[in-house]
Design a protein that fits this description.
The structure is a single chain. The protein is of the alpha/beta class. It folds into two domains: 204 residues, Enolpyruvate transferase domain (UDP-n-acetylglucosamine1-carboxyvinyl-transferase, Chain, Alpha-beta prism); 207 residues, Enolpyruvate transferase domain (UDP-n-acetylglucosamine1-carboxyvinyl-transferase, Chain). The protein contains 13 helices and 24 strands. The strands form six sheets. Strands 17, 18, 19, 20 and 21 form a five-stranded mixed beta sheet that branches. The longest helix is centred in the middle third of the chain and has 13 residues. The structure holds ligand EPZ. Ligand EPZ binds next to helix 1, helix 6 and helix 12. The site of ligand EPZ has 23 residues, from helix 1, helix 6 and helix 12.
Length: 417
């Protein structure tokens, strides 16, 4: 699928943000921990959600859209059988079935998860943690088999504050006998939302949002209803889109407090906003000043917004240093921006220098991964002439109809299947 964008249209209006991709994905996995019905609202229609639901259904679970953005899931009839490898390969989040399935079944085989090609994304943080809870695992080339004779709570120290490893271990610990204490846990808003979901099911979890989380396992978990938090990455994407195109747009139904560091960095560059408890409106469209952008685990600048800072840097006065400290191949989109006229020096796998402001010119470019794709869409809106983005279906993995949102703002974008 391609997006065709004719750039430099005046953009005005409001974008409403939906539920967080990286919150709903672990929450879908967490529904495995009960045989009762779970109703989850504010769920975006994105292909990663559909894939996770297909995996559940392939295992005997039932999952349906009970209204436009609401899921009703019941895993009473879940059976232990190998996962459909084609589905598992489509996304990283399939790894999140590991913890919950180990609570339901004493052995489980998982194929190699897929997901954005943005660097080496090891699973050892997950497996070392699960081993502490009593799991034995063996890796062969394509598969991972995990067994246990009863999960037992333990002290787990993560070598790195891995988001999905933290989530997997929390879910497994809910089914372990005794207390599990996770140190160096990830604090991201979506980890906090997963914990809120589990607590509403009856789990005993303390410390969500801090680097030390304590889970008292062995509670039987019931069904629940839950509204997914708003997606901070989608919100940040639209805010930076507005700044790059010098548009006074509003982004609503979001959590500004989940983007404190991002908004503070943008203010230091000269951006000005009107902020309420659930919205951000851009009020200044003057030339922004370059700064240093270093991605960090939460509450630092999220790696998922690094490509958006990269494209914004092309329209910013001075030289921006991008230091992508988490992933070692998440700068590929900069080559595509160079084709459009950006002034880029890639220093190494983690760092690049972008000097602006430079005009961008419409070109045929390629979408490398989900958030890089968003940056290329922004570049197309900024550029003069026509931009064609190939492999744009990747954007549907994380943004519900991003083209519809842009059309309401006045962009000239169309989807070519
Ligand atoms: C999750 O991936 C997200 N995916 C990713 O979002 C996100 O980029 C990433 O967390 C980081 O926030 C989901 O939640 C489904 P990690 P995950 O294990 O869990 C290194 C998107 O576009 N690292 O947290 O696989 C680590 O080695 C996707 O929505 C450190 O170096 O990521 C790995 O290379 C892309 N030090 C990378 O960071 C640390 O303290 C991310 O690891 C923690 C991690």
């Amino acid at each position: 699928m391609k997006f065709v964008i004719n750039g430099q249209k005046k953009l005005t209006g409001t974008v409403r943000v939906l539920g967080a991709k990286n919150a709903i994905l672990p929450i879908i996995a967490a529904t495995v921990l009960t045989e009762n019905e779970c109703v989850i609202s504010n769920v975006p229609h994105i292909s990663d959600v559909e894939t996770m639901l297909q995996i559940l259904r392939s295992m005997g679970g039932s999952a349906r859209w009970s209204s436009e953005h609401e899921l009703t899931i019941c895993n009473r009839a879940l059976a232990c059988k190998p996962l459909d490898q084609k589905l598992v390969k489509r996304l990283r989040a399939s790894v999140l079935f590991l913890g919950p399935f180990l609570v339901r079944f004493t052995s489980f085989t998982l194929g190699e998860p897929g997901g954005c090609i943005i660097g080496n994304r090891p699973l050892d943080t997950h497996l070392d943690g699960l081993a502490k809870l009593g799991c034995v695992w063996k890796h062969n080339d394509a598969f991972l088999s995990v067994t246990h004779t009863g999960l037992v709570g333990a002290d787990v120290v993560l070598r790195e504050a891995s988001v999905t490893a933290t989530e997997n271990i929390i879910m497994a610990a809910c089914g372990a006998r005794g207390i599990t204490k996770i140190k160096n846990a990830a604090c991201e808003p979506h980890v906090q939302d997963l914990c809120a979901f589990l607590i509403s099911m009856g789990a005993a979890i303390e410390g969500a949002g801090t680097s030390e989380i304590t889970i008292t396992g062995g509670k039987s978990l019931s069904g629940t209803t839950h509204a997914v938090i708003s997606d901070p990455i989608d919100a940040g994407t639209y805010i930076m889109l507005g700044l790059a195109t010098k548009s006074k747009i509003s982004v609503t139904r979001m959590r500004p407090d989940h983007l404190d560091t991002v908004l503070e960095t943008l203010r230091s560059m000269g951006a000005r906003f009107d902020i309420t408890k659930d919205s951000v409106t851009i009020t200044n469209t003057g030339l922004l000043q370059a700064t240093k952008i270093e991605t960090r685990i939460y509450p630092g600048i999220p790696t998922d917004l690094q490509p958006l800072f990269g494209v914004l840097a092309t329209q910013t006065q001075g030289t921006t240093l991008i230091n992508e400290t988490l992933f070692e191949s998440r700068l590929g989109y900069l080559q595509e921006l160079e084709k459009m006229g950006a002034s880029v020096v890639i220093s190494d796998a983690h760092r690049a220098l972008i000097t602006g402001p430079t005009p961008l010119y419409g070109r045929s470019i390629d979408c490398k991964d989900l958030r890089a794709g968003a940056a290329l869409v922004v570049a197309g809106l900024v550029a003069s002439g026509q931009t064609v983005i190939d492999h744009a279906e990747i954007l549907d993995r994380g943004y519900e109809h991003i083209d519809h949102a842009l059309l309401t703002l006045g962009a000239d974008i169309r989807r070519i299947e």
